Amino acid sequence: MNPLLSQLQPYPFEKLKQLFNGVTPPAHLAPISLGIGEPKHDTPEFIKQAITANLSGLANYPSTLGSDALRGAIADWIARRYQLPRPNPATQILPVNGSREALFAFAQTVINTQATSSALIMCPNPFYQIYEGAAYLSGAQPYFVNADPARNYSPDYANVPADVWERVQLLFVCSPGNPTGAVLTLADWQQLFELSDRYGFVIAADECYSEIYFGEQAPLGALEAAHRLGRTSYARLLSFSSLSKRSNAPGMRSGFVAGDAELIKQFLLYRTYHGSAMSPVIQAASALAWQDEQHVIQNRALYKAKFNQITPLLQEVLDVQLPDAGFYLWAKVDKLAPISDTEYAKQLYAEYNVTVLPGSYLARDAHGINPGQQRIRMALVASVDECLEAANRIVAFTKKLAR
């Protein structure tokens, strides 16, 4: 067996299952899960109809490069969304089976262990665990940069030593962030681009939450930031996006990467051998999804309504703020009483049948701290009524802790 597999840590939800082992929640309370970031809003009907209308595509082998129609629809969407010159669909766009598999596979394309035996992949902390797994299984090691609450949870890259940067081959950026919801500023991107120029590493920008936001201004994207700063070739930069959150279609496993044409060329070569082509049925439906914005506006309104109602309720008992974007609340749990994030989650489940994810499961001990400690992640993905019920139970539970 591949010895690198032994370095993988259990996924957060496996840790949560172990934490709850032997716990029986009250049967009179219906279970409510805020633990998993799985969209629960309805998938738009036109997407479902597009799938059934294109089932004849099952008789065809798909192209790894994807159809002209899909790549063109993605290029049009990028140009509209970020106010950019239209990317070249033939060289700067590549459809993928969801951003998760693409983020993982991209590390296998980029990391060069022959150049050094001590290659690093830099990740924010807390982070999406795929980044860590991608690092280990590419033969690199993850290097975590802690998110700083005083900097709107932006990692403090300025304090990373030069000898670390010299070993970094790939930087994973998540903006809007999971779990913090924080969005990088233009100044943040300028700093990262200058570091990339100096040390030669590639930037993979995970932007799957970009279309769920609460203000009037849409989150700044990586390609948008590069263009504003005069980096029109998107050198050493790829953006990863998906229909999962934008269109409530996680089961389609449909997304894209876009940016540096040379990186796209090499990633396409890897994926051709990897067997990662998207089904023609999903390609056809995806093209229509990227062309329609009305369902995205409606979806965003549903999230706004939930967060505007639930955040003030939870602020009574938890240290929590409305995030920049995304569908998570990242809350500190010790506002009223000292308690660990794991014990908070376990007791909440045991007494009120509400599931939240301990923040320490989403982070690693790095530079003397685990930045997820005493925090929980709540995914407000269910209906307004269900989320309100969960919030009221959390308020009651936390007040009880303080007595």
From TrEMBL:
InterPro entries: Aminotransferase_I/II_large, DapC_beta/gammaproteobac, LL-DAP_aminotransferase, PyrdxlP-dep_Trfase, PyrdxlP-dep_Trfase_major, PyrdxlP-dep_Trfase_small. Residues 32-393 form the Aminotransferase class I/classII large domain. It comes from the Bacteria. Keywords: Aminotransferase, Transferase. Gene3D superfamilies: Aspartate Aminotransferase, domain 1, Type I PLP-dependent aspartate aminotransferase-like (Major domain). PANTHER family: AMINO ACID AMINOTRANSFERASE, L-GLUTAMINE--4-(METHYLSULFANYL)-2-OXOBUTANOATE AMINOTRANSFERASE. This is Succinyldiaminopimelate transaminase. The lineage of its organism: Bacteria, Pseudomonadati, Pseudomonadota, Betaproteobacteria, Burkholderiales.
